[in-house]
Write a structure and sequence with these properties.
The protein has about 350 residues and is mainly beta. The chain has one domain: Outer membrane protein transport protein (OMPP1/FadL/TodX) (Porin). Strands 1-2-3-6-7-8-9-14-15-16-17-18-19-20 form a 14-stranded antiparallel barrel. A hairpin with a 3-residue loop joins strand 16 and strand 17. The longest helix is centred in the first third of the chain and has 17 residues. It is elongated.
C-alpha cells in the first residue's frame, strides 16, 4: 500500500514540475475564476490550508480533504470580490460518506458581474442597454481514506463562460493527497494539483463578421473568425501544518504553503489558526510572490488575510451535528479588499 501512496505523490510532483511557475507566460491563461476562493475558512488563510482543509471547502483547494467529514456536509458561500468592482461570487456544495472510507461531493460556483453597460464604436457613452456575463463551474469529486492516515481525491470540473452571443466550455481535473500523523494527528502534509485540463475557445455569433463578396458581387458574405485558444490556470500546492494542543480545549496551528503557478510567479506563505474547544476559531496568514520586486507586476492582494469561525451544535444528542458561520477578509492594494461569508452544516 505504501508504494501506492508514494506513486501518487511522485505523480503529483512530476506533473507539478511540468507545470512549474513561468512569469513569462503571465496573462496567457484564462478562466481565472477557478483561482477565486469562495469559502471563508480557506480564504482566511489566503488559500494556503492545503494540508488541513476538510469537508466541502476542500473541493476548491485539495480534494483529498473531502473525506474528513462525519456523514453529510453542506456549505454555502457569498463573496464580495474586490469590493468596489461590483463582482460577487456565490457557491454551494455538498458531500456525503459512501461506506466507511469514501466520500463523494458536488460543488457549484458562479460569478456575478452585475449589469454592464453596452457600448459601441458609434455610441461610446452607451446604447442604453446592459448585459451580464455568465461564468460558472461545476465539480464532481471522489475521495478515499486509507487507514485514517492517508487520503487521496480526484475532482472533475466543468467550466462554462458565456455572453448572449459567444461562449466557451472546458473541463479540468484536480487531484490531491493528504497525510496525517502524530499522537493526536498533530502533523499534516498535503499536495494538490489543480486545473489541469482542456484548452478553451470562444465560439458564437459574435465572432461572425460581414465582408464584401470576394468575387466583386453586390452582396456581403458572413465570415466566421477563429477564437484564440487559452489554457486553464493550472497550479501545484504543497503545504504542511502542525497542531499544538494545550489545556485540553485549546489548539494553536501553524502552517506553511508553497504554490507553483503555470502562468504567473510562484507564491510562498505562512499562517496560523487558534481554536477554543473547536467552537471559536481565529485565523490569519501572509502570502507573497517570489522572484519580483516590481510593484506593477505584483499580485492584487497585499498578502494579508484574516478570518474567524463560530460553531454551534444543532442537537444535544448528536454531537457531530453542527453549524458553522465563517468570515474572512483579504487586503488588496486597490479597491477595498475581498470579503467572504460562508455557512457550513455537518451531520
Amino acid at each position: 500500500m505504501q508504494k501506492i501512496y508514494f506513486s501518487l505523490l511522485f505523480l503529483l510532483l512530476s506533473l507539478g514540475a511540468i507545470q512549474a511557475g513561468n512569469p513569462d507566460r503571465q496573462g496567457e491563461a484564462g478562466a481565472y475564476e477557478l483561482l477565486m476562493d469562495p469559502w471563508a475558512r480557506t480564504a482566511g488563510l489566503h488559500s494556503m490550508s492545503t494540508s488541513l482543509v476538510r469537508g466541502v471547502e476542500s473541493m476548491n483547494l485539495n480534494v483529498a480533504g473531502l473525506v474528513r467529514i462525519n456523514k453529510l456536509d453542506f456549505g454555502f458561500g457569498s463573496t464580495q470580490y474586490l469590493q468596489g468592482t461590483g463582482i460577487n461570487l456565490s457557491s454551494a456544495a455538498v458531500s456525503a460518506k459512501i461506506g466507511k472510507s469514501s466520500v463523494m461531493g458536488l460543488s457549484l460556483m458562479a460569478v456575478d458581474f452585475g449589469d454592464i453597460e453596452v457600448t459601441t464604436a458609434n455610441q461610446p457613452e452607451g446604447t442604453g442597454g446592459t448585459y451580464s456575463p455568465s461564468f460558472f463551474n461545476l465539480g464532481f469529486a471522489y475521495a478515499h481514506e486509507f487507514e485514517n492516515k492517508v487520503s487521496v481525491g480526484l475532482l472533475l470540473r466543468v467550466v462554462s463562460e458565456s455572453l448572449a452571443n459567444v461562449s466557451a466550455f472546458g473541463f479540468g481535473i484536480d487531484a490531491g493527497v493528504q497525510y496525517v500523523t502524530g499522537e493526536q494527528d498533530n502533523f499534516k502534509f498535503g499536495i494538490s494539483l489543480r486545473n489541469v485540463g482542456s484548452p478553451m475557445t470562444y465560439r458564437g455569433e459574435a465572432l461572425s463578421i460581414q465582408r464584401p463578396s470576394p468575387n466583386g458581387g453586390s452582396y456581403d458574405v458572413t465570415v466566421d473568425q477563429r477564437g484564440a485558444r487559452f489554457e486553464l490556470p493550472s497550479l501545484l500546492n504543497i503545504g504542511a501544518s502542525y497542531d499544538f494542543r494545550f489545556l485540553e480545549k485549546h489548539r494553536f496551528t501553524v502552517l506553511g504553503n508553497f504554490t507553483s503557478n503555470s502562468f504567473s510567479r510562484d507564491n510562498l506563505g505562512a499562517g496560523a489558526e487558534y481554536a477554543f474547544d473547536e467552537r471559536f476559531v481565529l485565523r490569519g496568514g501572509y502570502k507573497t510572490d517570489l522572484g519580483s520586486n516590481d510593484p506593477i507586476q505584483a499580485q492584487i492582494y497585499t498578502g494579508l488575510s484574516a478570518g474567524g469561525s463560530v460553531t454551534f451544535p444543532l442537537s444535544k444528542v448528536e454531537k457531530n451535528t453542527k453549524i458553522s458561520v465563517d468570515y474572512a477578509y483579504r487586503a488588496s492594494k486597490v479597491w477595498s479588499g475581498t470579503h467572504n461569508i460562508s455557512v457550513r452544516i455537518g451531520i
